[in-house]
């Protein structure tokens, strides 16, 4: 239960972190450490080099620019949960962020870390997919932007390449209304199933997480006005997801969380 | 890989400690074995149980999920730091009075989480207290007495 030895570098700028990443192919980036350090304690992860980016002020920016909420990779879950700017721009985000882990976890965990880790049952990767967000990646070779829907590829698997650092995520400020709900065994746990529901005109979308290897966003042409009709529609949508047979029991839960998320989106003004 | 040592200055409970640490040592281990403050208890070492909770710049964090080297430049508060020279703080006194501990293993983490809440919000509701404490596991009390103790300590500050 103790990490293996590693070389430790404390980066003070993004460029310095990128230089280190380019120099040390086996290195890992240390942000909040709330997923990486448990893996290191178990020695499931044994990086030779750890590049600590906690001192890189640029990565902690939170701003609204060009109709987008721009969230620096180092923005902590607690900031997302408590920031008035975030609540004003993308109200569903703080609702979801409050469900991440516990107080002590939210004080350290970062959006960049959550996105890099890509736990299929975690709230923020699914939020990015539901909200049609973009992940901004930088390396010594330059910058590229990847749509969240393409970034998350499967269980703990992303498009993040060798030498690349997640520097920011961008979420378009939308006129759609969003709701969020999840089922957990105990408060603070990873979700068994969660859903974001979007209401945009007569239709919208539903994004499920905790089902399969990555968040799945499915379009809805027109939401039925009655709960029974929505139930039928949601059941059909869940039926189409490629789920392991061991997760079959989650289908009913998925319908329930999506209906609750729909109700929440209804209430949001 | 060689287990190198680096020199750090850690500010713990208002005192600076010049230490040689390995980067791989967690803050919980550095506090216990280098600084000699054994009030911080180590339970699961994977961020689940909350026993090792300390305050980093006044905010609760898991000291098993931060490396000691990372705490440089921050103020670390352990359970020793919220304990008066003699006697108990109002929160600690309430824990004793309300039987909020049995084996005591989770208690330092509980105290620091609860104290951070009371520092931030002197009169929290029962619901807020329960929410704040969800990250700290206790296998003895069933939590009710812990909630009772924190409720009783509301509005009393940290004491002397």
Q: How does this structure look, described?
A:
The complex is a heterodimer of chains A (269) and B (160). With 269 residues, chain A is of the alpha+beta class. Chain A has 3 domains: 7-52, Uridine Diphospho-n-acetylenolpyruvylglucosamine Reductase, domain 2 (2-Layer Sandwich); 57-172, Uridine Diphospho-n-acetylenolpyruvylglucosamine Reductase, domain 3 (2-Layer Sandwich), CATH 3.30.465; 177-267, CO dehydrogenase flavoprotein, C-terminal domain (Enolase-like, domain 1), CATH 3.30.390. In chain A, 33% of the residues lie in helices and 27% in strands. In chain A, strands 4-5-10-6-7 form a 5-stranded antiparallel β-sheet. The longest helix of chain A has 18 residues, at 250-267. Chain A starts with 6 loop residues before the first strand and ends with a helix. With 160 residues, chain B is α+β, with helices and mostly antiparallel strands. Chain B folds into 2 domains: 6-82, Ubiquitin-like (UB roll) (Roll); 90-152, Orthogonal Bundle (DNA polymerase, domain 1), CATH 1.10.150. Chain B is 29% helix and 16% strand. Chain B has a 5-stranded mixed β-sheet with strand order 2-1-5-3-4, with helices on both faces. The termini of chain B are far apart. The model of chain B has no long low-confidence stretch (mean pLDDT 96).
